[in-house]
Amino acid sequence: MQIKRIEGFNAYCLAKGVGREVSLFMLQDESLAVGDFVVVHVGYAIERISEEQAQTAWELYDQMLAG
After folding, report:
1. Domain with 56 in it: what CATH number?
2. Which of 2, 12, 26, 41 is 20 to 30 Å apart from 18, CA to CA?
């Protein structure tokens, strides 16, 4: 998901038109910024990834759902 807004340890993130409130608590030692991409699991950002990695992941998910 892409971070659209950060407020403390919480962020509003968006992916494929779906928005979610996400906790950044587990990545508090990272310097995250609006526009960064993160892997989200059960409401927590667990890893920062590049835009290319995010795009590749979504392409793979789309292929799995189509197949």
Report:
1. 2.30.30.140
2. 26
Residue 12: which residues within 8 A CB-CB, separation 6 or more? Answer: 3, 4, 5, 19, 20, 21, 22
The tally of domains found in the chain comes to 1
Q: Which domain holds residue 36?
A: 2-66
**pTM: predicted TM-score of the whole model, two decimal places:** 0.90
Whole-number pLDDT of residue 29:
94
- Return the exposure string of 12-33: e unless at least 16 CB atoms fall within 10 Å of the residue's CB, then b: ebebeeeeeebbbeebeeeebe
Tell which residue, 44, 31, 60, has the closest CA to residue 1. 44
Q: The tokens of 50 are what? A: 């590049």
